[in-house]
Design a protein that fits this description.
123 residues, 11 strands, globular
Length: 123
């Protein structure tokens, strides 16, 4: 099993940047694919990005492609989300997730979630 704790959220002006971190506990971190999701008020949770267990492949939602970058450091049991050129519509609670199957993880079908970190982008 893996436990996840996000950090790095906050308030930023449009056009600014933030880097989210997700620290994982457990010795099996490097065997899990990792992902970021977000949920804005009144909306369903949506996929943002995933990265494979070895870090060799990434996938992004169209809405963040070219602006966000997901990465991981297996030595530190941490996954990151670098967010650049932020827009007000990026405001949401951002969740880190882990899963052994990439397509299920991308669909949000996993038991392993962090508690979330708030990102607010002002216009």
């Amino acid at each position: 099993q893996v436990q996840l704790v996000e950090s790095g959220g906050g308030l930023v002006q449009a056009g600014g940047s933030l880097r989210l971190s997700c620290a994982a506990s457990g010795r099996s971190f490097s065997s899990y694919h990792m992902g970021w999701f977000r949920q804005a008020p009144g909306k369903e949770r949506e996929f943002v990005a995933t990265i494979t267990y070895g870090g060799g492949s990434t996938d992004y939602a169209d809405s963040v492609k070219g602006r966000f970058t997901i990465s991981r450091d297996n030595a530190k049991n941490t996954v990151y989300l670098q967010m650049n050129s932020l827009k007000p519509e990026d405001s949401a609670v951002y969740y880190c997730a882990a899963g052994p199957r990439l397509q299920k993880l991308r669909a949000g079908d996993t038991a392993y979630w962090g508690q979330g970190t708030q990102v607010t982008v002002s216009s």
